[in-house]
Amino acid sequence: MAISATSGAKVYIGPVTAAASASAYAALTWVEIGDVETIGEFGDSSATISFTSLSDNRVRKLKGARDAGDLTVTCGHNPLDAGQIAAIAAEATKFAYAIKVVLEDSADANDTDSTFYFHAKVMSKRLTPGGANDVTKRIFVLGIDTAIIEDLSEAVS
Predict the structure, then answer these.
(1) Domain of 48?
(2) Which tens digit of pLDDT belongs to each residue from 26-64?
(3) Higher model confidence: residue 109 or residue 36?
């Protein structure tokens, strides 16, 4: 497979659910968050646990808890977009919602696109009006609190 552009990527919000497999996530009802301009980075990183031994004056490092991060989704503010409305409503709750990110990275029309599933709490819904020649934007920060299930692009026969 070759590299691909981010153009065509989509972000969806789903319900509060206990889904934990690609097939369970795929069966959910999704609402696309419209007018997405950028999708930030996401994925696991491990906390560093360090220990300094007096006898050899060496810092030893261990891998600690894994954190999938906070996903920033920047949109052109659209007060009538069903996905933005759902994300705004989700921010007002304490619950984690199913999230789906789809990259348009299939090699051709016979292949699938890569899809990423996880649960996240909508931590913020900030509005950025900007200046006279700017597009008003809505910036959502999604606090990921589950493992990310990757259903990577593959050839379909």
Answers:
(1) 10-151
(2) 999 999 999 999 999 999 999 999 999 999 999 999 999
(3) 36
Give the pLDDT score at 99.
Answer: 98
- Asked whether residue 1 is domain-assigned, the answer is no
CATH classification at residue 37: 2.30.110
Q: Which residues contact 125 (CB under 8 A, 6 or more apart)?
A: 87, 88, 91, 138, 139, 140
- Does residue 68 belong to any structural domain of this protein? yes
Is the residue at 147 inside a domain?
A: yes
Give domain status of residue 69, yes or no. Answer: yes
What's the gap between Cα 22 and its chain centre? 15
Q: What is the pLDDT of residue 157?
A: 60
Total structural domains within the chain: 1
Q: What is the average pLDDT score of the chain?
A: 94
40, 120 in Cβ contact below 8 A? no
H helices of the chain, in order, are 22-26, 82-91
Residue that has been written with the tokens 């379909």 in this structure: 156
